[in-house]
Amino acid sequence: MSAGEIDAEERHRERMQRKKDLVDRKIARATIERGVVVVNTGNGKGKSSSGFGMLARSLGHGFRCGVVQFIKGSFSTGEEAFFRRFEGDGLDYHVMGEGFTWETQDKSRDIEKAQAAWRVAAAMLADPAYDFVLLDELNIALVKDYIQLQQVTDALAARPPNQHVVITGRGAPDGLVEVADTVTEMRVVKHAFKAGIKAQKGIEL
Amino acid sequence: MSAGEIDAEERHRERMQRKKDLVDRKIARATIERGVVVVNTGNGKGKSSSGFGMLARSLGHGFRCGVVQFIKGSFSTGEEAFFRRFEGDGLDYHVMGEGFTWETQDKSRDIEKAQAAWRVAAAMLADPAYDFVLLDELNIALVKDYIQLQQVTDALAARPPNQHVVITGRGAPDGLVEVADTVTEMRVVKHAFKAGIKAQKGIEL
Description:
homodimer, alpha/beta, Rossmann fold, 8 helices, 6 strands, 45% helix, EC 2.5.1.17 (chains A, B), Co_AT_N_dom (chains A, B), cobalamin biosynthesis (chains A, B), porphyrin biosynthesis (chains A, B)
Protein backbone atom coordinates (compact mmCIF):
# COMPACT_ATOMS: atom_id res chain seq x y z
CA MET A 1 0.00 0.00 0.00
CA SER A 2 1.10 3.57 -0.71
CA ALA A 3 1.36 6.16 2.07
CA GLY A 4 -1.87 7.74 0.73
CA GLU A 5 -3.73 4.44 0.95
CA ILE A 6 -2.46 3.82 4.45
CA ASP A 7 -3.70 7.31 5.42
CA ALA A 8 -7.11 6.61 3.90
CA GLU A 9 -7.33 3.30 5.78
CA GLU A 10 -6.39 5.06 8.99
CA ARG A 11 -9.02 7.78 8.47
CA HIS A 12 -11.60 5.05 7.78
CA ARG A 13 -10.56 3.27 10.97
CA GLU A 14 -10.92 6.45 13.03
CA ARG A 15 -14.29 7.32 11.49
CA MET A 16 -15.59 3.82 12.14
CA GLN A 17 -14.23 3.90 15.70
CA ARG A 18 -16.24 7.09 16.33
CA LYS A 19 -19.31 5.47 14.79
CA LYS A 20 -18.77 2.38 16.93
CA ASP A 21 -18.59 4.54 20.08
CA LEU A 22 -21.85 6.22 19.10
CA VAL A 23 -23.61 2.92 18.35
CA ASP A 24 -22.22 1.37 21.54
CA ARG A 25 -23.55 4.29 23.60
CA LYS A 26 -26.98 3.93 22.01
CA ILE A 27 -26.98 0.19 22.68
CA ALA A 28 -25.87 0.79 26.27
CA ARG A 29 -28.86 3.10 26.79
CA ALA A 30 -31.29 0.33 25.75
CA THR A 31 -31.25 -1.67 28.95
CA ILE A 32 -34.80 -2.90 29.33
CA GLU A 33 -35.34 -6.65 28.93
CA ARG A 34 -38.93 -7.69 28.45
CA GLY A 35 -41.36 -9.21 26.02
CA VAL A 36 -42.32 -6.95 23.14
CA VAL A 37 -45.40 -6.56 20.98
CA VAL A 38 -44.46 -6.30 17.30
CA VAL A 39 -47.03 -5.25 14.68
CA ASN A 40 -46.43 -5.67 10.92
CA THR A 41 -48.95 -3.79 8.85
CA GLY A 42 -49.34 -1.93 5.53
CA ASN A 43 -50.17 -3.09 2.01
CA GLY A 44 -46.71 -4.37 1.09
CA LYS A 45 -45.21 -7.83 1.13
CA GLY A 46 -43.43 -9.24 4.16
CA LYS A 47 -45.88 -8.88 7.05
CA SER A 48 -46.53 -12.58 7.59
CA SER A 49 -43.19 -13.79 6.25
CA SER A 50 -41.41 -11.54 8.75
CA GLY A 51 -43.56 -13.03 11.51
CA PHE A 52 -42.52 -16.50 10.37
CA GLY A 53 -38.88 -15.40 10.27
CA MET A 54 -39.16 -14.31 13.92
CA LEU A 55 -40.81 -17.66 14.66
CA ALA A 56 -37.73 -19.36 13.17
CA ARG A 57 -35.46 -17.17 15.32
CA SER A 58 -37.50 -18.01 18.41
CA LEU A 59 -37.38 -21.74 17.70
CA GLY A 60 -33.63 -21.29 17.17
CA HIS A 61 -33.38 -20.06 20.76
CA GLY A 62 -35.34 -23.04 22.02
CA PHE A 63 -38.40 -20.92 22.85
CA ARG A 64 -41.83 -22.44 23.28
CA CYS A 65 -43.87 -20.90 20.46
CA GLY A 66 -47.51 -20.61 19.50
CA VAL A 67 -49.00 -19.66 16.12
CA VAL A 68 -52.60 -18.83 15.29
CA GLN A 69 -53.39 -18.09 11.66
CA PHE A 70 -56.64 -16.14 11.53
CA ILE A 71 -57.01 -16.42 7.75
CA LYS A 72 -56.08 -19.56 5.98
CA GLY A 73 -56.91 -18.83 2.36
CA SER A 74 -54.52 -20.38 -0.07
CA PHE A 75 -51.66 -18.30 1.27
CA SER A 76 -50.15 -20.52 3.90
CA THR A 77 -49.12 -23.72 2.21
CA GLY A 78 -45.33 -23.38 2.37
CA GLU A 79 -44.97 -22.12 5.90
CA GLU A 80 -47.54 -24.56 7.23
CA ALA A 81 -45.81 -27.53 5.57
CA PHE A 82 -42.53 -26.34 7.01
CA PHE A 83 -43.45 -25.40 10.57
CA ARG A 84 -45.83 -28.30 11.18
CA ARG A 85 -42.67 -30.39 11.52
CA PHE A 86 -41.95 -28.65 14.82
CA GLU A 87 -45.27 -29.40 16.41
CA GLY A 88 -44.68 -31.05 19.74
CA ASP A 89 -41.09 -29.84 19.48
CA GLY A 90 -41.63 -26.36 20.90
CA LEU A 91 -44.41 -25.27 18.59
CA ASP A 92 -48.22 -25.22 18.68
CA TYR A 93 -49.59 -24.35 15.26
CA HIS A 94 -53.26 -23.54 14.69
CA VAL A 95 -54.83 -22.65 11.38
CA MET A 96 -58.25 -21.39 12.42
CA GLY A 97 -59.70 -19.26 9.63
CA GLU A 98 -61.23 -20.60 6.46
CA GLY A 99 -60.32 -17.92 3.97
CA PHE A 100 -60.93 -14.31 3.14
CA THR A 101 -64.49 -13.07 3.60
CA TRP A 102 -65.04 -12.88 -0.12
CA GLU A 103 -64.15 -16.57 -0.34
CA THR A 104 -66.50 -17.79 2.38
CA GLN A 105 -69.27 -15.19 1.77
CA ASP A 106 -70.82 -16.18 5.08
CA LYS A 107 -70.42 -13.46 7.68
CA SER A 108 -71.84 -15.29 10.71
CA ARG A 109 -69.57 -18.21 10.07
CA ASP A 110 -66.55 -15.89 9.61
CA ILE A 111 -67.31 -14.22 12.94
CA GLU A 112 -67.63 -17.60 14.67
CA LYS A 113 -64.33 -18.77 13.20
CA ALA A 114 -62.56 -15.53 14.15
CA GLN A 115 -63.81 -15.76 17.72
CA ALA A 116 -62.81 -19.41 18.00
CA ALA A 117 -59.32 -18.42 16.78
CA TRP A 118 -59.23 -15.61 19.32
CA ARG A 119 -60.06 -18.02 22.16
CA VAL A 120 -57.00 -20.12 21.23
CA ALA A 121 -54.86 -16.98 20.97
CA ALA A 122 -56.12 -15.60 24.29
CA ALA A 123 -55.24 -18.88 26.04
CA MET A 124 -51.66 -18.57 24.72
CA LEU A 125 -51.41 -14.93 25.84
CA ALA A 126 -52.47 -16.01 29.32
CA ASP A 127 -49.98 -18.88 29.52
CA PRO A 128 -46.44 -18.16 30.74
CA ALA A 129 -45.25 -21.36 29.04
CA TYR A 130 -45.32 -19.51 25.70
CA ASP A 131 -42.25 -17.35 25.02
CA PHE A 132 -43.37 -16.27 21.55
CA VAL A 133 -46.85 -16.00 20.03
CA LEU A 134 -47.55 -15.18 16.39
CA LEU A 135 -51.08 -13.99 15.60
CA ASP A 136 -51.02 -14.03 11.83
CA GLU A 137 -53.61 -11.81 10.08
CA LEU A 138 -55.29 -10.88 13.37
CA ASN A 139 -55.53 -7.29 12.07
CA ILE A 140 -57.96 -8.40 9.36
CA ALA A 141 -60.37 -9.71 12.01
CA LEU A 142 -59.96 -6.49 14.04
CA VAL A 143 -60.64 -4.26 11.04
CA LYS A 144 -63.87 -6.17 10.36
CA ASP A 145 -64.87 -5.99 14.04
CA TYR A 146 -65.08 -9.78 14.18
CA ILE A 147 -62.94 -9.49 17.32
CA GLN A 148 -63.12 -6.50 19.69
CA LEU A 149 -59.91 -4.47 19.92
CA GLN A 150 -60.41 -4.02 23.66
CA GLN A 151 -60.26 -7.81 24.19
CA VAL A 152 -56.93 -7.90 22.38
CA THR A 153 -55.34 -4.92 24.14
CA ASP A 154 -56.52 -6.25 27.53
CA ALA A 155 -55.00 -9.66 26.81
CA LEU A 156 -51.72 -8.06 25.66
CA ALA A 157 -51.54 -5.90 28.78
CA ALA A 158 -52.16 -8.87 31.08
CA ARG A 159 -49.77 -11.29 29.37
CA PRO A 160 -46.61 -12.71 31.00
CA PRO A 161 -43.97 -9.93 31.04
CA ASN A 162 -41.36 -11.82 28.99
CA GLN A 163 -43.67 -13.08 26.28
CA HIS A 164 -43.15 -11.74 22.75
CA VAL A 165 -46.19 -11.29 20.52
CA VAL A 166 -46.14 -10.61 16.77
CA ILE A 167 -49.37 -9.46 15.11
CA THR A 168 -49.67 -9.15 11.34
CA GLY A 169 -52.15 -7.92 8.76
CA ARG A 170 -53.22 -4.83 6.86
CA GLY A 171 -54.88 -1.94 8.59
CA ALA A 172 -53.63 -2.36 12.18
CA PRO A 173 -56.05 -0.25 14.26
CA ASP A 174 -54.60 2.86 15.96
CA GLY A 175 -55.39 1.43 19.38
CA LEU A 176 -53.17 -1.56 18.66
CA VAL A 177 -50.33 0.59 17.29
CA GLU A 178 -50.53 2.59 20.51
CA VAL A 179 -49.89 -0.40 22.81
CA ALA A 180 -47.30 -2.05 20.53
CA ASP A 181 -43.55 -1.65 21.07
CA THR A 182 -42.41 -2.00 17.46
CA VAL A 183 -44.62 -1.23 14.48
CA THR A 184 -43.55 -1.49 10.87
CA GLU A 185 -45.50 -0.43 7.82
CA MET A 186 -44.65 -2.62 4.85
CA ARG A 187 -45.01 -0.20 1.94
CA VAL A 188 -45.34 -1.41 -1.68
CA VAL A 189 -42.65 0.05 -3.92
CA LYS A 190 -43.54 -2.42 -6.66
CA HIS A 191 -45.18 -5.83 -6.83
CA ALA A 192 -44.73 -8.68 -9.32
CA PHE A 193 -48.49 -9.40 -9.26
CA LYS A 194 -49.18 -6.04 -10.96
CA ALA A 195 -46.83 -7.11 -13.77
CA GLY A 196 -48.92 -10.22 -14.34
CA ILE A 197 -46.80 -12.65 -12.34
CA LYS A 198 -48.75 -15.26 -10.34
CA ALA A 199 -48.21 -15.74 -6.62
CA GLN A 200 -45.13 -17.95 -6.45
CA LYS A 201 -44.41 -20.93 -4.21
CA GLY A 202 -41.72 -20.07 -1.69
CA ILE A 203 -42.42 -16.35 -2.07
CA GLU A 204 -46.14 -15.79 -1.45
CA LEU A 205 -47.25 -19.42 -0.99
CA MET B 1 -82.37 -14.80 12.98
CA SER B 2 -84.84 -11.98 12.28
CA ALA B 3 -85.84 -11.07 8.72
CA GLY B 4 -83.58 -8.00 8.96
CA GLU B 5 -80.60 -10.10 9.97
CA ILE B 6 -81.25 -12.55 7.15
CA ASP B 7 -81.38 -9.60 4.73
CA ALA B 8 -78.09 -8.25 6.07
CA GLU B 9 -76.47 -11.68 5.68
CA GLU B 10 -77.74 -11.87 2.13
CA ARG B 11 -76.42 -8.40 1.28
CA HIS B 12 -73.05 -9.38 2.79
CA ARG B 13 -73.04 -12.55 0.69
CA GLU B 14 -73.76 -10.62 -2.49
CA ARG B 15 -71.14 -7.97 -1.75
CA MET B 16 -68.54 -10.63 -1.02
CA GLN B 17 -69.51 -12.53 -4.18
CA ARG B 18 -68.86 -9.36 -6.23
CA LYS B 19 -65.55 -8.89 -4.44
CA LYS B 20 -64.63 -12.51 -5.09
CA ASP B 21 -65.39 -12.07 -8.80
CA LEU B 22 -63.14 -9.00 -8.88
CA VAL B 23 -60.30 -10.75 -7.02
CA ASP B 24 -60.71 -13.87 -9.18
CA ARG B 25 -60.44 -11.78 -12.35
CA LYS B 26 -57.30 -10.06 -11.06
CA ILE B 27 -55.78 -13.44 -10.15
CA ALA B 28 -56.74 -14.82 -13.58
CA ARG B 29 -54.86 -11.95 -15.25
CA ALA B 30 -51.63 -12.85 -13.40
CA THR B 31 -50.61 -15.84 -15.49
CA ILE B 32 -46.84 -15.60 -15.63
CA GLU B 33 -44.91 -18.31 -13.79
CA ARG B 34 -41.24 -17.53 -13.24
CA GLY B 35 -38.63 -16.83 -10.64
CA VAL B 36 -38.92 -13.41 -9.04
CA VAL B 37 -36.45 -10.98 -7.50
CA VAL B 38 -37.74 -9.63 -4.19
CA VAL B 39 -36.05 -6.69 -2.46
CA ASN B 40 -36.75 -5.75 1.18
CA THR B 41 -35.37 -2.36 2.07
CA GLY B 42 -36.06 0.68 4.29
CA ASN B 43 -35.14 1.49 7.89
CA GLY B 44 -37.86 -0.54 9.54
CA LYS B 45 -37.89 -4.00 11.06
CA GLY B 46 -38.67 -7.12 9.05
CA LYS B 47 -36.33 -7.02 6.05
CA SER B 48 -34.22 -10.03 7.01
CA SER B 49 -36.91 -11.80 9.03
CA SER B 50 -39.22 -11.67 5.99
CA GLY B 51 -36.41 -13.18 3.91
CA PHE B 52 -36.08 -15.98 6.46
CA GLY B 53 -39.86 -16.48 6.43
CA MET B 54 -39.72 -16.97 2.65
CA LEU B 55 -36.82 -19.36 3.18
CA ALA B 56 -39.08 -21.38 5.51
CA ARG B 57 -41.84 -21.35 2.86
CA SER B 58 -39.36 -22.50 0.22
CA LEU B 59 -38.06 -25.32 2.40
CA GLY B 60 -41.72 -26.24 3.02
CA HIS B 61 -42.11 -26.77 -0.71
CA GLY B 62 -39.01 -28.97 -0.83
CA PHE B 63 -36.99 -26.34 -2.70
CA ARG B 64 -33.21 -26.41 -2.79
CA CYS B 65 -32.21 -23.17 -1.03
CA GLY B 66 -29.08 -21.10 -0.59
CA VAL B 67 -28.41 -18.36 1.95
CA VAL B 68 -25.51 -15.92 2.04
CA GLN B 69 -25.41 -13.51 4.98
CA PHE B 70 -23.25 -10.54 4.00
CA ILE B 71 -23.13 -9.10 7.52
CA LYS B 72 -22.87 -11.31 10.50
CA GLY B 73 -22.73 -8.91 13.40
CA SER B 74 -24.50 -10.14 16.47
CA PHE B 75 -27.84 -10.10 14.68
CA SER B 76 -28.13 -13.59 13.30
CA THR B 77 -27.93 -15.95 16.23
CA GLY B 78 -31.50 -17.25 16.27
CA GLU B 79 -32.03 -17.80 12.58
CA GLU B 80 -28.59 -19.32 12.15
CA ALA B 81 -29.13 -21.77 15.02
CA PHE B 82 -32.48 -22.69 13.54
CA PHE B 83 -31.72 -23.01 9.83
CA ARG B 84 -28.31 -24.69 10.26
CA ARG B 85 -30.35 -27.81 11.08
CA PHE B 86 -31.41 -28.02 7.42
CA GLU B 87 -27.92 -27.97 5.98
CA GLY B 88 -27.51 -30.94 3.72
CA ASP B 89 -31.29 -31.26 3.76
CA GLY B 90 -32.03 -28.76 0.99
CA LEU B 91 -30.16 -25.80 2.41
CA ASP B 92 -26.68 -24.29 1.97
CA TYR B 93 -26.09 -21.64 4.60
CA HIS B 94 -23.10 -19.29 4.45
CA VAL B 95 -22.32 -16.57 6.95
CA MET B 96 -19.61 -14.61 5.20
CA GLY B 97 -19.39 -11.15 6.72
CA GLU B 98 -17.74 -10.33 10.00
CA GLY B 99 -19.84 -7.48 11.25
CA PHE B 100 -20.76 -3.92 10.51
CA THR B 101 -17.94 -1.68 9.28
CA TRP B 102 -17.83 0.18 12.56
CA GLU B 103 -17.23 -3.13 14.31
CA THR B 104 -14.36 -4.32 12.14
CA GLN B 105 -12.92 -0.83 11.39
CA ASP B 106 -10.82 -2.38 8.63
CA LYS B 107 -12.04 -1.34 5.20
CA SER B 108 -9.74 -3.52 3.05
CA ARG B 109 -10.72 -6.55 5.05
CA ASP B 110 -14.43 -5.65 4.79
CA ILE B 111 -14.12 -5.34 1.00
CA GLU B 112 -12.33 -8.70 0.76
CA LYS B 113 -15.02 -10.36 2.86
CA ALA B 114 -17.83 -8.78 0.83
CA GLN B 115 -16.29 -9.94 -2.40
CA ALA B 116 -15.72 -13.44 -1.10
CA ALA B 117 -19.40 -13.52 -0.07
CA TRP B 118 -20.38 -12.26 -3.52
CA ARG B 119 -18.43 -15.08 -5.20
CA VAL B 120 -20.45 -17.64 -3.22
CA ALA B 121 -23.68 -15.80 -4.08
CA ALA B 122 -22.79 -15.52 -7.78
CA ALA B 123 -22.12 -19.27 -7.95
CA MET B 124 -25.63 -19.90 -6.55
CA LEU B 125 -27.23 -17.46 -9.02
CA ALA B 126 -25.50 -19.36 -11.86
CA ASP B 127 -26.64 -22.77 -10.62
CA PRO B 128 -30.05 -24.10 -11.73
CA ALA B 129 -29.99 -26.52 -8.77
CA TYR B 130 -30.98 -23.60 -6.50
CA ASP B 131 -34.70 -22.77 -6.49
CA PHE B 132 -34.42 -20.01 -3.88
CA VAL B 133 -31.48 -17.79 -2.92
CA LEU B 134 -31.48 -15.36 0.01
CA LEU B 135 -28.79 -12.66 -0.09
CA ASP B 136 -29.17 -11.17 3.36
CA GLU B 137 -27.85 -7.61 3.82
CA LEU B 138 -26.38 -7.52 0.30
CA ASN B 139 -27.70 -3.94 -0.01
CA ILE B 140 -25.27 -2.79 2.69
CA ALA B 141 -22.31 -3.99 0.61
CA LEU B 142 -23.78 -2.33 -2.51
CA VAL B 143 -24.33 1.00 -0.75
CA LYS B 144 -20.68 0.99 0.37
CA ASP B 145 -19.50 0.03 -3.14
CA TYR B 146 -17.81 -3.06 -1.75
CA ILE B 147 -19.59 -4.96 -4.54
CA GLN B 148 -20.41 -3.37 -7.90
CA LEU B 149 -24.11 -3.08 -8.68
CA GLN B 150 -23.52 -4.04 -12.30
CA GLN B 151 -22.10 -7.42 -11.24
CA VAL B 152 -25.26 -8.08 -9.25
CA THR B 153 -27.74 -6.97 -11.93
CA ASP B 154 -25.84 -8.98 -14.57
CA ALA B 155 -25.93 -12.10 -12.40
CA LEU B 156 -29.66 -11.62 -11.70
CA ALA B 157 -30.42 -11.19 -15.42
CA ALA B 158 -28.47 -14.33 -16.34
CA ARG B 159 -29.84 -16.56 -13.57
CA PRO B 160 -32.02 -19.65 -14.19
CA PRO B 161 -35.54 -18.42 -15.12
CA ASN B 162 -37.35 -20.20 -12.28
CA GLN B 163 -34.97 -19.19 -9.50
CA HIS B 164 -36.30 -16.87 -6.80
CA VAL B 165 -33.91 -14.37 -5.21
CA VAL B 166 -34.54 -12.31 -2.09
CA ILE B 167 -32.20 -9.41 -1.34
CA THR B 168 -32.38 -7.49 1.93
CA GLY B 169 -30.81 -4.45 3.54
CA ARG B 170 -31.25 -0.71 3.92
CA GLY B 171 -30.71 1.63 1.03
CA ALA B 172 -31.36 -0.67 -1.95
CA PRO B 173 -29.81 1.17 -4.92
CA ASP B 174 -32.22 2.46 -7.61
CA GLY B 175 -30.62 0.22 -10.22
CA LEU B 176 -31.52 -2.84 -8.13
CA VAL B 177 -35.09 -1.65 -7.51
CA GLU B 178 -35.43 -1.23 -11.28
CA VAL B 179 -34.62 -4.88 -12.08
CA ALA B 180 -36.54 -6.34 -9.11
CA ASP B 181 -40.09 -7.72 -9.43
CA THR B 182 -41.31 -6.99 -5.91
CA VAL B 183 -39.86 -4.27 -3.71
CA THR B 184 -41.05 -3.43 -0.22
CA GLU B 185 -39.96 -0.55 1.94
CA MET B 186 -40.13 -1.46 5.61
CA ARG B 187 -41.02 1.86 7.25
CA VAL B 188 -40.55 2.46 10.99
CA VAL B 189 -43.79 3.52 12.66
CA LYS B 190 -42.24 2.94 16.09
CA HIS B 191 -39.39 0.88 17.48
CA ALA B 192 -38.89 -0.64 20.93
CA PHE B 193 -35.17 0.24 20.85
CA LYS B 194 -36.02 3.95 20.96
CA ALA B 195 -38.00 3.30 24.14
CA GLY B 196 -34.90 1.81 25.77
CA ILE B 197 -35.71 -1.84 25.13
CA LYS B 198 -32.72 -4.03 24.21
CA ALA B 199 -32.69 -6.16 21.08
CA GLN B 200 -34.62 -9.27 22.11
CA LYS B 201 -33.90 -12.92 21.36
CA GLY B 202 -36.46 -14.30 18.95
CA ILE B 203 -37.35 -10.81 17.71
CA GLU B 204 -34.12 -9.14 16.57
CA LEU B 205 -31.62 -11.87 17.57
